[in-house]
């Protein structure tokens, strides 16, 4: 009887360890640097450092002029998939406005976000360029 309890306990302990090691994880992403800020656009450098439990199926940058922690439910770019460094360009911004941006990466488990970085666009120097339609 004691042998059966020990075997059952060992089996359940092993099962718990296996289940815990199968934890589903979203990607890890860094918002690295903001460059080329002007009156209507900016460039953001980012890196997906870990795809998590599943491959990254979408990556990019989300931004907002109202929230310090923007999400993919607002304005965003789509800049490919997979791990590694990427650059995102955001357009059609308003002059002299503070924006917060952060990188994101999505796998089948969910979306991971980098830290938010904020910047202010410069005063207007001309008409805004036509950069096409943005995803919102």
Commentary on this structure:
This protein is an alpha+beta fold and 136 residues long. The chain has a domain at 28-120: Immunoglobulins (Immunoglobulin-like, Sandwich). It contains one helix and eight strands, in the order αββββββββ. β6 and β7 (111-113) form a beta hairpin. The mean pLDDT is 86.
Shape: elongated
Over all CA atoms, what is the radius of gyration?
21 Å
CATH topology of the domain at 28-120: Immunoglobulin-like
* Fourth CATH level, the homologous superfamily of the domain at 28-120: Immunoglobulins
Q: Report mean pLDDT, rounded to a whole number.
A: 86
Helix content: 10-25%
Beginning-to-end CA distance, first to last residue: 63 Å
Largest sheet: 5 strands, antiparallel
Q: Which structural class best describes the helix and strand composition?
A: alpha+beta
Helix tally equals 1
Which range does the strand content fall in? 35-45%
The total of beta strands comes to: 8
CATH top level assignment of the domain at 28-120 = Mainly Beta
- Poorly predicted regions: none
In short:
The chain has 136 residues and is α+β, with helices and mostly antiparallel strands. 15% of the residues lie in helices and 36% in strands. Strands 3, 4, 6, 7 and 8 form a 5-stranded antiparallel beta sheet that branches.
Write the layout of secondary structure elements.
Blueprint: H1 2-21, E1 28-35, E2 42-50, E3 58-64, E4 75-76, E5 84-90, E6 98-106, E7 111-113, E8 117-120
Antiparallel strand pairs: 1-2, 2-5, 3-4, 3-6, 6-7, 6-8
